[in-house]
């Protein structure tokens, strides 16, 4: 194997082939010619990517690896680590975008020559975007604070290094300092040259910024416990909320935002959502993550523009600093127009003792358990007079007794303008309904606002409205098992922006509450405490319509009840497998990769298949994939396709109809596209749902079961006989859909009656 060749783990092989990890383990046992490990450990071996790809092709298990997948595997298997590889790629992509001619000249050279020439070229673009270098290290366009000393760096992935400079990485400091991107040396870059060539090829197709977004998104997805992410839909919503409300002065509304700060930048999702010509400021405690964020924001900015003298000049880059924001504020003199912040939650070691006399605590010293209220006051201290801030907050911050004095101060001074409850699933931690706090720094001489907007959008969780919803209203309550892929962002976005901009009382959604009503012993600002919940089923007036629809659905369901089953002896039929049919060309297999918002089409999710719902609705135009990553090229559904979930252990299969065709195939789904001249789709879907069939085709881990679709079995039958079975399976599917609809309507009617009887809008007699 060539030195520094890209390696891949068993999980990466499973992703390439669209199977589970158990299948890869079986291949290693069953096939003597399976590639041998070249690295890793005994429990987690790694393999040469080129050898694995060739073996998969020889076995007919891989047609062609998409370019973006090959680039990601090269990043993940980089000998210096994925974090270092991403820094190299980010520097190269800046060069590709800002100096394309120089890149083409470099790319024409052999690998060793290219590695020797790249540092000087990267130095040029890093200086233009992130400021001049000191000893080969680039900061930002802002002046370097005095008295900064560098120390050890941390590689993304949590590994600390000893003191000093980490080649190809970043520097840390005990005091706040610019996020520093070290210009890689020729020796550092030599193993990365094939990766950089492939990344440039990917950028030629989707753009340098999107190429980096995709790779960074994959890195974040591969390490979900290491990062706290802000979904892009939520980031854009927070940016929109930072705009002045409709009743603000017209000149103020039309004035462009000049400066935006994120004091807990993380991966830079909030600042990346900001549009227009703005000065971006960010601070992040993790130096390696801060460097990646600086590259991300630089690549998201506009490319070089032609100046009056005919030269191309790059726009100033973001100002990204490293350090603990509360203990070592990097921007003590900044008065930003807007602050966006997703602070860390429930931190006990935030500096309570050493910051007891900090001048930022205008509204009171936060308790040790109230780190979030420390962030609130830090944000207000970094706003200009009249500036707006939007923070993502845990719900407990609105009601904990230990914070009531600070909340009261925020209300009396008019600094807190709105508290908006989001549905569970809007952002991590996904199990609780987080809040958005909108703040405005009080202006001297201006009378404080006398009211607070409270809004609750928690009833808007779940997929887009379906046939069982009352016309004109989204379905009430949470979707069972609600989560990120079952989140109706368009409805939530519309409700939140309407509530903020209109500041009007809307039954069950928003209420403008006088401050005097909130200044009691608890100062509880949780919206649910001050808003009556809307009755299920649209209130007493809507229960009649729900009852009529339920009655009609039950009548139709009765007509779809299958006839009595005719007992027969167990049939012994010759069997084949899905894998054998795929090798014979009778059907094709595809794995889903799309998530809602990652593609221009609606996405059929695992939840949609299990519940019979329509594909998940699109987010608002202009939003991108979660984590900021561009999606893999999606698999689009066609009529007659059969879709099965690969996780969970249940039996489910869905035949794609004309209404679902055109949607993208979501994650954790397997698509079987049969040749209609050889396999009837309803026959295929019906036999795939057999309990015994699923059991023999599933592998089990400690917490979940995974289906290997290739092992599912089908009886060998002529097409005419298949169609006879298929017609019966189609009738069963229609009966199942009718039962689902009746169950949804029945649940709404029952809950609506409970609500009406208990609140007095329905009488018992």
From TrEMBL:
<dbReference type="InterPro" id="IPR029063">
    <property type="entry name" value="SAM-dependent_MTases_sf"/>
</dbReference>
<dbReference type="GO" id="GO:0032259">
    <property type="term" value="P:methylation"/>
</dbReference>
<dbReference type="InterPro" id="IPR052916">
    <property type="entry name" value="Type-I_RE_MTase_Subunit"/>
</dbReference>
<dbReference type="InterPro" id="IPR044946">
    <property type="entry name" value="Restrct_endonuc_typeI_TRD_sf"/>
</dbReference>
<keyword id="KW-0680">Restriction system</keyword>
<dbReference type="InterPro" id="IPR036388">
    <property type="entry name" value="WH-like_DNA-bd_sf"/>
</dbReference>
<keyword id="KW-0808">Transferase</keyword>
<keyword id="KW-0489">Methyltransferase</keyword>
<keyword id="KW-0238">DNA-binding</keyword>
<feature type="region of interest" description="Disordered">
    <location>
        <begin position="457"/>
        <end position="487"/>
    </location>
</feature>
<dbReference type="Pfam" id="PF02384">
    <property type="entry name" value="N6_Mtase"/>
</dbReference>
<feature type="domain" description="DNA methylase adenine-specific">
    <location>
        <begin position="209"/>
        <end position="455"/>
    </location>
</feature>
<dbReference type="InterPro" id="IPR003356">
    <property type="entry name" value="DNA_methylase_A-5"/>
</dbReference>
<dbReference type="GO" id="GO:0008168">
    <property type="term" value="F:methyltransferase activity"/>
</dbReference>
<protein>
    <submittedName>
        <fullName>N-6 DNA methylase</fullName>
    </submittedName>
</protein>
<feature type="region of interest" description="Disordered">
    <location>
        <begin position="133"/>
        <end position="183"/>
    </location>
</feature>
<feature type="region of interest" description="Disordered">
    <location>
        <begin position="614"/>
        <end position="633"/>
    </location>
</feature>
